[in-house]
Specification:
single chain; mainly alpha; globular; 6 helices
Length: 98
């Protein structure tokens, strides 16, 4: 399966091993596009997501949003509190690094 579709598939597959899903979440940072963002948001907004996968999804989401110029408030509000803090931290750090 071509990337990033293969990575998204692994990330969203709750039967996949946590380590595989975590790696997929981290690797998705290298990609752009609405489908990538939506998959990361789906994971970062889930109240039943594994903490490791949630953190990696939030970090990748923050990096993508920083690269693309910011984050809509409604997207932030949809995230789990821990994921929202991570995304906000990544966005703040990217602004300081400019």
């Amino acid at each position: 399966m071509p990337q990033p579709a293969g990575l998204i598939s692994v990330l969203l597959d709750r039967t996949a091993r946590i380590g595989e899903r975590d790696d997929a979440a981290m690797d998705l940072e290298a990609y752009a596009g609405e489908h990538v963002v939506q998959a990361l948001v789906e994971v970062a907004s889930s109240p039943v997501e594994d903490d490791l996968v949630l953190v990696s999804a939030a970090e990748s989401l923050g990096q993508i949003l920083a690269r693309d110029g910011g984050c809509p408030e409604d997207l932030l509000e949809s995230l789990q509190p821990a994921a929202r803090r991570i995304v906000e931290e990544v966005l703040r750090a990217s602004r300081r690094g400019m």
